[in-house]
Design goal:
CATH class of the largest domain: Mainly Beta
Structural class: alpha+beta
CATH superfamily of the largest domain: monomeric porin ompg
Number of helices: 6
Shape: rod-shaped
Number of domains: 3
CATH topology of the largest domain: Porin
Strand order of the largest sheet: 1-2-3-4-5-6-7-10-12-13-14-15-16-17
Number of strands: 21
Helix content: 10-25%
Low-confidence stretches: 1-18, 297-307, 384-399
CATH architecture of the largest domain: Beta Barrel
Radius of gyration: 47 Å
Strand content: 35-45%
């Protein structure tokens, strides 16, 4: 009997400190399994069924079966969940049911925190009848008071800021005790739930927009009186439809979890663990299987709070992305146009100031005006007879390339050239400078013509253009000597 009790005690220690809160590799497939603050985390109502077979090379090794359903309400501020669990470890069988309530607090548009509590009951059954012993009449094996139920509660927190998520969970906070009476006097069994703690940090990196994300993560588990255990890994997700999570568990295993969505509302996944360390020589592998269903309005639709299918959501995201890119391009082009307008306005201001400076710097005195008038008197064509038309008179009098139109006169060459620049810029008028020997003035002239009709049209055209508003002087026909 002493040997049996020793085995039982070792089993109790193993369950109490190592397996009271089962480990699973499906945190990213269904985060609600491990953190009540994740109830309704994506606004959908989801149900999951999960099974884990640990150390398949060992007889009566641990196994765990979970069923959960969770969803959101009150505009996704409140999450509700229900979880049923059956955990078996050799002769120890724990069955529990928890209800969860989470509340999301919005800090900013891309930052929020969720707080949650889950409470329920746990039944712990010690299967004395499954003990294999040499002495089948041992009083301990005849014990029948092996079912006890007590209260249990968990607390969870989840913080999200853009791609960063931090989760904190405290399990079995009540520290409930279970007392088992045996037929062996002084050998009653006491079993207690001890507090467990978990922290997980992950950061989502967008490798390819709308296509591929990579989320490195690290998880820390601990319990009162137990050294912490670290998980480290990374999850790769493609278009929110297929994902893989690879990780390392300190002094325990390396694992690979795969999952995906089928027909928009059915999720399937699995995991494989390869044990490391001394236990790997005899423990065998560990397997997990998970199946989930997202409740929606039809077999091709996943509940997103709006009834849109995932293909619709994907298309809407694509359209939104395109519109955002087009908006950014329009903003960029608008900025360029505004810059050009500002530059043009500045250029126009400079041009106006340039014209004013030219006029102010080219004021003509009475004496200078008399010189110009005498020059015009000697070279201007202004009358061709009373009975002869303007064009006919010019045709009779003009020789080839002997006549042009004078459009301005300046005493300084720099002002004359500035006048040419202004005429070219404002009227696209190409001009030439004329300076007669002995004259102190530079005259701006058009190209020489020999056709009377063209001279007439050019003269009238230039007068209508308002050249006098741009430079000093009046337009007149010049006859070269």
């Amino acid at each position: 009997m002493k040997k049996i009790f020793t085995i039982l005690l070792i089993g109790l220690i193993t369950v109490t400190f190592a397996q009271q809160v089962p480990i699973n590799d499906q945190y990213y497939t269904n985060p609600y399994f491990t953190n009540p603050a994740k109830a309704g985390f994506d606004g959908n109502t989801k149900a999951f069924l999960y099974n884990r077979q640990q150390w398949t090379g060992i007889q009566n090794a641990p196994s765990n079966t979970l069923f959960s359903i969770d969803g959101a309400t009150n505009n996704d501020k409140v999450g509700l969940g229900l979880m049923l669990s059956n955990d078996v470890d050799n002769i120890f069988k724990r069955t529990s049911i928890y209800g969860s309530y989470s509340y999301k607090i919005k800090i900013t548009d891309n930052q929020h925190i969720s707080l949650a509590a889950s409470a329920g009951v746990m039944n712990v059954h010690i299967a004395f009848e499954d003990i294999i012993a040499d002495n089948s009449n041992d009083p301990l094996l005849l014990s029948t008071d092996a079912n006890k139920t007590n209260f249990s509660a968990n607390f969870g927190l989840n913080y999200k800021f853009k791609g960063l998520q931090v989760g904190l969970v405290a399990y079995q906070l009540a520290g409930s005790k279970f007392h088992y009476e045996t037929q062996t006097q002084g050998k009653d069994i006491n079993y207690q739930l001890i507090q467990h703690f978990m922290a997980v940090v992950g950061y989502e990196i967008i490798a390819i927009p709308e296509k591929l994300t990579v989320t490195p993560n690290i998880m820390l588990r601990s319990a009162i009186g137990i050294s912490p255990q670290i998980d480290a890994g990374a999850m790769v997700k493609y278009e929110d439809f297929v994902w893989a999570n690879i990780g390392w568990r300190q002094n325990a295993s390396v694992y690979l979890a795969l999952g995906g969505i089928v027909y928009d509302n059915i999720t399937i996944g699995g995991a494989y663990e390869y044990n490391i360390g001394s236990i790997s020589n005899f423990s065998g592998s560990t397997f997990e299987v998970i199946v989930g269903y997202t409740f929606g309005k039809g077999s091709s639709q996943a509940s997103s709070g709006s009834g849109y299918s995932k293909s619709d959501i994907k298309q809407l995201r694509k359209i939104t992305q395109q519109q955002s890119e087009e908006m950014d391009q329009l903003k960029s082009e608008n900025k360029k146009l505004n810059n050009e307008i500002e530059k043009n306005n500045a250029d126009i201001t400079n041009m106006k100031e340039e014209i004013i400076r030219l006029k102010n710097s080219s004021n003509i005195s009475n004496a200078d005006q008399e010189i110009i008038d005498n020059f015009k008197k000697d070279h201007e064509v202004k009358s061709f007879g009373s009975n002869v038309s303007y064009s006919d008179s010019v045709n009779k009098s003009f020789n080839k390339e002997q006549y042009c139109v004078i459009v301005g006169a300046y005493k300084e060459i720099k002002n004359a050239k500035l006048g040419q620049k202004i005429l070219k810029r404002e009227l696209d008028l190409k001009t030439y400078l004329i300076k007669k020997p002995g004259s102190s003035y530079y005259f701006i002239a058009t190209d020489f013509l020999d056709n009377a009709e063209e001279i007439k049209k050019e003269h009238k055209r230039l007068k209508k253009l308002g050249i006098e508003e741009l430079i000093n002087g009046t337009t007149w026909v010049y006859k070269a000597e």
